[in-house]
Amino acid sequence: MVLQDEEENQVECVIFNAEIMHFADLFRPFHTYLMSVAQVKESNYMYGNPLNKFTWTIDRCTIVEPIETVNPPEEPLPPPTRLNLTPFGNFEYQPEGSEFDVLAIVLNASPSTYASNGRRIQDFIIMDDHKKPTKFTLWEEFIDHDGNKLLELLKKEYPIILAKKVARPKSSSGKTPQMHTRWSNKFNTGLTNRFSTTIEINPPYPQANVLRTWAQQNEQMLIAYTMKSTGPTCSLLFVPFEEEIVPIAEIRQQNPGQIFYIHAEVALQNENQRFCILACSDCKQHFTRAFSRRKFYCTNCRQATQLVPRCQFEMTLTDQSGSTTTTIVDEYAEKTLFLTSKEIYDICNVKKGLLPLANAQKLLTGKIFKIQIKKLFTRNNEAGKLVILSFIDKSNSVVSQMPATIKDVAEGSKQKIEPAAPEKQEHPHITTKGNGSYKCNAEMKISPPKNC
User: Fold this and answer.
1) Other Cβ atoms closer than 10 A to 38
2) CA spacing 20 to 30 A to 401: which of 14, 170, 322, 449?
3) What's the confidence (pLDDT) of residue 417?
4) pTM for this one?
5) Are 107 and 162 in contact (CB under 8 A)?
6) Is 296 exposed, middle or buried (0-12, 13-18, 19+ CB in 10 A)?
7) Model confidence band, residue 208 (pLDDT cutoffs 50, 70, 90)
8) How many CB atoms lie within 10 A of CB 320?
């Protein structure tokens, strides 16, 4: 436990073995006690920096008096205010292996599923009042301990959490992401729990009350973001809270799966490029070396289907920082060319002619567009393929816009959603401390089992 006195001095307190059950019904989070004759010893610095020079041990010989039982009567301590929080904007500066505390609003959550290593995970989107959403991942017993309760609370409110001793996750190579990586809206990194993490839900700190008030005042904005960040299968879409404009020169720093906006001029990458490819009518698998529509057996979806034309071509985007090539597909590409996929196929593959591109050039020339882009996951291309989700003439109306359920070009790797495990116990709580014949608040830190 963590104990805190009226001056908010803190000390760690330990209870061992059978003494745990002896005091189990006595200590309550954020409750005030008068404590005397605890065992005191110097703290161990081997595993990090302790809260205090000394550590307390409580056993049956320790006098622990709830404040209501003290005679003469005493007033309970006020709610604690001492917190050592790390702002969302400073996550990227936290060194490898370090643990820090975060106060956040929980905006959205996914059901629990399984990571590639077979362990259960559950993702949340958390945010502060500076509108910087971040992914927060819980593992194994933390899902049962806290995740299920947060998932249930999100049905009726946006809970506030105080997550203590969280960390930046290590990459698949075993290294923490480098500090120079831009973390604004970098959901692929985010935060994760550690063995020693504790999560307080709706804690009574004044800082939490301020954040709760801000959330209530901006509830409609938070609801809109929750809807925007929810996928069709209740999965999470890690999208920016606000439309951050990314310079083209910084696109390489965006992680695969990231959705972002740029302001740029748009042009056809090459007027002689292929504007139409053939794809399976069912699974949309591309067959780029095929040129004729016909029935065939698709080895990807394991059934007889048809090769059908699909409008797809490349466009060049240019701003003051540089240029890049992106792909636009299907009806949104058709709107740009003022032609359907069938018309494009007939002109290019049947009649062997050239597409009339005058209308497309007129649509694009001399304008600045606000373009929504997604960086796709690719197997062999580290840079990541870019696909246009929507683009809008800044001085006019929408040219085209993808629905949220877009089937990404060249993107696969689907995850099976597993039902969340049943809730087993209440979330870990926190308390505070005291000295002498010590008047204190109690803060419980209940760690999950070691195999977490």
Assistant:
1) 22
2) 322
3) 34
4) 0.55
5) no
6) middle
7) very high
8) 9
CA-based nearest residue to 141, from 419, 445, 427, 444: 427
Residue 147: half-sphere exposure toward Cβ, Cα within 13 Å: 27
- Residue 79's pLDDT is 83
d(C-alpha 372, C-alpha 384), whole Å: 16
Q: Which residue has the tokens 């048809």?
A: 306
Residue written as tokens 């003469």? 72
3-state secondary structure of 226: helix
pLDDT tens digits, one per residue of 233-242:
777 877 777 7
Structure-model confidence comparison of residues 424 and 26, the more confident one: 26
pLDDT, average across residues 222-244: 81
The larger pLDDT score, comparing residue 24 to residue 420, is at: 24
Q: Residue 180 burial (CB < 10 Å; 0-12/13-18/19+)? A: exposed
The pLDDT value given to residue 383: 55
**Residue 171 pLDDT more than 80?**
no
Instruction: Using alpha carbons only, give the angle 353, 285, 318 rounded to the nearest 5 degrees.
Output: 65
Sheet holding 54-57, edge to edge: 39-42, 54-57, 10-14, 2-4, 438-443, 32-36, 63-66
d(CA 90, CA 72): 48
The H-or-E segment that residue 109 falls in is: strand 100-109
160, 200 contact by CB (below 8 A)? no
Question: Rounded CA gap, 234 and 288, in Å?
Answer: 33
Helix, strand, coil content of the chain in percent (nearest 5): 20, 30, 50
Rounded to whole angstroms, the Cα distance separating 230 from 225 reads 9
Q: Is 341 left (phi over 0), alpha (psi -120 to 50) or beta?
A: alpha
Q: Are 20 and 63 in contact (CB under 8 A)?
A: no
Residues 247 and 256: beta-carbon distance below 8 Å: no
CA distances from 243 to 55, 259, 314, 399, 447 (A): 48, 10, 24, 18, 39
Give the model confidence (pLDDT) of 430-439 as tens digits: 333 334 455 5
409 in Cβ contact with 226 (< 8 Å): no
Q: What count of other Cβ atoms lies within 10 Å of the Cβ of residue 218? A: 16
Within 205-264, residue ranges assigned H as helices are 206-217, 219-228
Whether the per-residue pLDDT at 380 is higher than 80: the answer is: no
Of the candidates 48, 43, 55, 1, which has an alpha carbon nearest to the alpha carbon of residue 24? 1
Q: What is the pLDDT of residue 368?
A: 92
The DSSP 8-state label assigned to residue 347 in this structure reads I
- How far is the C-alpha of 97 from the C-alpha of 151, rounded, in Å? 28
